[in-house]
């Protein structure tokens, strides 16, 4: 069974028996915390923290997003060179990214016009959109061992980096988690092409893998761009 878009780090289970006690506890905690704080559940916004810790945080995460994009690019290039020569996989690739359903700011200029919150939200939406495909990609590559081991380990690393980028955004920009999840829930299209990755027809399978690697490279570039804009704003180097 295919899992719903997974939002790692959050447990969305609900136990109805313990639920009401938990709810009461949460209400009481909120009441306690509310005194003197207008937005208790929002947590500290990273843009409001001191420059020193902000600098370190953003330098580290900008490297991570750089590696995320670098690794996705290398994977795509390797797949293209090894499996796509003389094939027509590229013809539909750009049109078939599942994330095309969203109206992401495409280029640096457009992204620079946006608020910190919007950029952060777009980065999180993009990363969330890849949880499901990456999960299936890793599972299938591990299972079939059809591609060389480097593809398996690269995809695992990419999934891990994506999780760490999400964890960074979720812990420092708590306010945008709900809006980002809402966008994912209301998405007109979700990735549902796992059947092609599992297809017994090699050409169909490779074509879908080509699409995935191509779209991942493209989207990881956007994610990296958003993180770099956030970093240069935080470090005031824009
Ligand atoms: C990825 O990073 C390595 C090491 O920093 C670099 O040599 C390589 O050119 C990069 N590749 C791409 C596609 O960006
Ligand atoms: C795929 O590989 C071919 C041959 O090396 C190259 O000409 C082509 O530009 C590559 N495609 C992309 C999108 O990089
Ligand atoms: C984003 O955050 C930075 C760092 O605190 C701030 O200087 C800048 O004005 C903010 N920019 C926007 C567009 O909200």
Describe this structure in words.
The chain has helices at 16-34, 51-83, 90-93, 108-112, 116-144, 149-172, 177-185, 194-197, 202-234. With 238 residues, the protein is an all-alpha fold. The protein has a single domain (54-235), classed as Up-down Bundle (Growth Hormone, Chain: A), CATH 1.20.1250.10. Helix 2 (51-83) packs antiparallel against helix 9. The longest helix is centred in the N-terminal third of the chain and has 33 residues, at 51-83. It is elongated and about 55 Å long. It starts with 15 loop residues before the first helix and ends with a helix. The model is unreliable at 1-42 (pLDDT under 50). The structure holds 2-acetamido-2-deoxy-beta-D-glucopyranose (3 copies). One 2-acetamido-2-deoxy-beta-D-glucopyranose binds at residues 47, 115-116, 233-234.
């Amino acid at each position: 069974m295919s899992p719903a878009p997974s939002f790692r780090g959050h447990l969305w289970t609900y136990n109805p028996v313990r639920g009401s006690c938990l709810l009461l506890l949460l209400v009481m905690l909120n009441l306690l915390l509310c005194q003197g704080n207008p937005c208790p559940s929002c947590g500290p916004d990273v843009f409001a923290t001191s420059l020193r810790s902000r600098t370190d945080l953003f330098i580290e995460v900008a490297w991570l997003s750089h590696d995320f994009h670098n690794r996705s690019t290398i994977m795509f290039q390797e797949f293209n060179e090894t499996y796509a020569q003389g094939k027509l996989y590229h013809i539909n690739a750009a049109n078939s990214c599942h994330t095309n359903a969203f109206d992401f700011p495409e280029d640096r200029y457009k992204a620079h016009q946006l608020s910190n919150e919007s950029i952060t939200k777009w980065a999180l939406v993009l990363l969330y959109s890849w949880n499901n495909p990456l999960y299936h990609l890793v599972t299938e590559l591990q299972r079939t061992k059809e591609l060389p081991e480097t593809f398996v380990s690269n995809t695992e690393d990419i999934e891990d980096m994506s999780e760490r980028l999400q964890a960074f955004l979720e812990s420092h920009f708590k306010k945008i988690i709900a809006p980002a999840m809402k966008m994912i829930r209301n998405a007109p299209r979700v990735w549902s092409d796992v059947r092609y990755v599992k297809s017994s027809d090699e050409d169909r399978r490779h074509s879908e893998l080509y699409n995935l690697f191509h779209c991942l490279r493209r989207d990881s570039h956007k994610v990296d761009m958003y993180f770099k804009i956030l970093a240069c704003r935080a470090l005031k180097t824009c």
